Every structure is written in C-alpha cells, then in structure tokens.
Recover the amino acids of this structure.
C-alpha cells in the first residue's frame, strides 16, 4: 500500500466511476456548445485580489475557505474557489469584449478548491462546468442560460431537481432595501461575526443556514417589495420566458447565494435527495463585476453546475447512465507470430474508430480469455499458429459464445460489420460513488 493518500476532503476519480463524471461533464457542456458558447480554460490559481474584490471580502469563500499561497517573489495567489471571476478576468485581458460581437459567450470545466469541513457533497476539491455570457443586459440571455442548465439536467435523466428564482435588484433599488434590511437585522439576537456582516453585506445574513438565525429572519423585509419598476419588469420578462420554454420554477424571495457580485436575476438548482447539501448548481446576473475587478461596465450573467453534486443526485434518483463500452474487441494471441499479427490488427481497428485492447504479457489462453471477459468487450480476436497458417483469425462473440474464422486481411471490415449487427444501447453502468 502507498505511504501517501489523497488529502483530506478530496478524492480520486478512477475507472469505472470516472466514466460517469466525464459523461456528466459532457452532458452539461453540450447545450451550451449548441448555443454558441466557446470553451475557455483559466489557470488553477489567480491573484488573491481577484477573488477578494470580485467574490467579496465578506463572503465565507474569501474569509474562511480560500487556499492561498505566497510565491518566492512575494505575490499572493489563491487556488480558484469559483470560476466566474477567472473567466471574466481572462475575457478582459484578451479584450474579447472589444471584438464587436457581444455578448461574449464562454463555457468552462475544471477543478475548484475551498477549505471546508468535508461531508457528502462538499469537498475541498470539486469539479464544475460553467457558462458565462459577458457584455449584454437582456432578460432573454438570462432565460437562455437557465434553459441550457435545465436541458443539461434533463438530458442526463435527472428529474428531481427544482429551480429557485429571485431578483436582487440593481444599484438603483438595492441601497434602499439594504438600509431596511440592516435596520431589521440590527434588532436580532446574532453573534458578533454575523453582526459584523450586517454592516458589510446584509444580504449574506439571509443566506445563513443555521436554524436559530433562520427563525429570526421570518419577518425580514424582502427584496421583492423594494424592486424598482425597471427591475420588476426585467424579472417578470425572465419569468415569462421560462414559462414559455416549459421550465418550472419556484419564486424564492430569500435566495441570495453566497457571492457578492450578483444583481437582478439569481437562481439555484436544488435536489431534495442530497440532504443538507442540496444545491447542485446556480448562478445569476453580475452586472457590476467587471468594474469591481478593473474593467469597463459589462453587464453579464452565468452559472456553474457541480459535477460532483450532479453525480450524487443521479445516484439519489437511481439513474444509471448508458455509457459506451470501454473496449469492443480484445485480442488474444497464442504465440509470437500471433502477437505481431494481432498487434497490427488492434492498431488498425483503433485507427478505424473501434475500441480495442490486447492481452499483454504473454498470457496463456485461459487467463487471456478471463481478461477479455473482464474488459467488457463484445468480441475477442483469437489467433494461433494453425489459424495463421490458414490465413485467418477467430472472431468470438463473448456473449453468445459463437466463433468463426475471419481472413487476416478482412479483420477491420468484419469486426465493424459484427459490431453494427450486435449494437448495444450502452455499456457498463457506473456505481456513481466517489472514492
């Protein structure tokens, strides 16, 4: 056994479970790609100030959860705790907003890091797929992103998720609400840390998950009662567009999420089968973030969906994804000449798009066939001296046991034809359990 283990709060993705995670990432990204979102990849670490200024000094992410480091040159960096700030920074640095085609539509996939107490659905290293539309203020864009997320979940067969929706107003109407909320919160019995948050960002108090705090928030003023006419009209358009698209949602007047940069449209996807960590994804509009990090005014909207949480939600619903077979054909050579012949055949099959593997290490017939069965392959290619002398190899159906000769010059064509004839809808089902 290795002396080293994965750090606390992390896990390794290994086959066969890793195939499920890859399938989930692909399913989440697919609708965004079809909607014109291009792929962006940013570094795993950024300047600390990008997150402290963008995500917010008062957020738990910045004050408690960031992994930070200081370089030999004295620069303070942080492992990225979320994706939006990094993607917006990259777009601004590359002047994508000046190309004349707004919004800039980007999607990303990667690992993120937060120092949290490990529990089911909450890890210190986790995976997300996100999408951002930068540089346009349009309720159709907000609705588009929400619909893309819903379509991604539905494509995976997920049905038990709910969409929570709210508006946080804008710079015109939020100040009056902020003042009213602060007046209310100052009269509550709260600890010193929470009282300090009232002065910095009182909306974050609404996001406090502690029951003792939530009980006191029953009569808190709601942002919906303080929205200006423009924000009301904007939010109503988003709601109508979602309804027209067949997307059900629940109005949640206390939904604020955990990041300071959100304005107007805010949403979260939750799954009741996940216990306390019920959020599987979310996002919203962040019209002032570009200016917070030194860029021009660029109204934007986006979301991030958790791959880990989505996998757990699939497991909670008992959904087993249909995954392609890892191996279609397994080559079993008997003798040195057969090794060369079948290695050439396996190479040709792979180049023709067929997933093929090989019995390495000079295994005997019995052990090689065991490996062939364990591989999940539908067919085995078996060849010995007598077969090669006749110019053939044996193609064996590992499900039915049927076997027949195939000329060595026709292996690729014969295998592809048999695969079409015996096409199966999917492959092995994943256990959906992280290590």
């Amino acid at each position: 056994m290795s002396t080293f283990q994965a750090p606390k709060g992390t896990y390794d993705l290994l086959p066969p479970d890793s195939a499920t995670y890859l399938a989930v990432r692909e399913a989440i990204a697919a609708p965004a790609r079809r909607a014109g979102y291009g792929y962006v990849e940013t570094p795993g670490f950024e300047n600390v100030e990008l997150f402290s200024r963008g995500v917010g000094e008062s957020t738990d992410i910045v004050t408690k959860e960031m992994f930070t480091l200081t370089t030999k040159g004295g620069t303070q960096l942080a492992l990225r705790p979320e994706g939006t700030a990094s993607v917006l920074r990259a777009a601004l640095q590359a002047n994508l907003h000046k190309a004349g085609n707004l919004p800039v539509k980007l999607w990303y996939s990667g690992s993120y890091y937060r120092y949290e107490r490990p529990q089911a659905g909450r890890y210190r290293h986790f995976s997300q797929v996100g999408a951002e539309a930068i540089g346009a203020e349009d309720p159709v864009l907000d609705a588009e992103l929400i619909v893309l997320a819903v379509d991604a979940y539905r494509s995976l067969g997920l049905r038990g998720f709910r969409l929570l929706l709210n508006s946080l107003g804008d710079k015109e109407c939020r100040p009056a609400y902020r003042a009213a909320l602060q007046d209310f919160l100052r009269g509550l019995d709260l600890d010193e840390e929470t009282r300090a948050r009232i002065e910095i960002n009182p909306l974050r108090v609404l996001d406090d998950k502690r029951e003792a705090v939530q009980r006191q928030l029953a009569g808190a003023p709601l942002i919906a009662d303080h929205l200006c006419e423009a924000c009301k009209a904007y939010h109503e358009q988003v709601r109508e567009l979602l309804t027209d698209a067949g997307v059900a949602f629940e109005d949640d007047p206390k939904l604020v999420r955990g990041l300071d940069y959100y304005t107007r449209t805010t949403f979260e996807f939750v799954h009741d089968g996940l216990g306390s960590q019920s959020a599987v994804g979310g996002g919203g509009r962040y019209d002032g973030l570009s200016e917070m990090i030194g860029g021009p005014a660029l109204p934007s909207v986006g979301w991030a969906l958790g791959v880990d949480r989505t996998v757990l939600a699939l497991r909670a619903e008992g959904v087993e994804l249909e995954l392609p077979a890892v191996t279609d054909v397994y080559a079993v050579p008997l003798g040195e000449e057969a090794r060369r012949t079948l290695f050439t055949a396996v190479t040709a099959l792979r180049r023709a798009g067929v997933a093929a593997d090989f019995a390495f290490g000079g295994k005997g017939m019995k052990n090689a066939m065991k490996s062939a069965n364990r591989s999940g392959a539908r067919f085995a290619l078996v060849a010995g001296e007598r077969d090669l002398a006749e110019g053939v190899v044996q193609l064996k159906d590992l499900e039915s046991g049927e076997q027949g000769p195939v000329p060595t010059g026709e292996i690729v064509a014969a295998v592809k034809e048999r695969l079409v004839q015996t096409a199966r809808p999917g492959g092995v089902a994943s256990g959906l359990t992280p290590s």
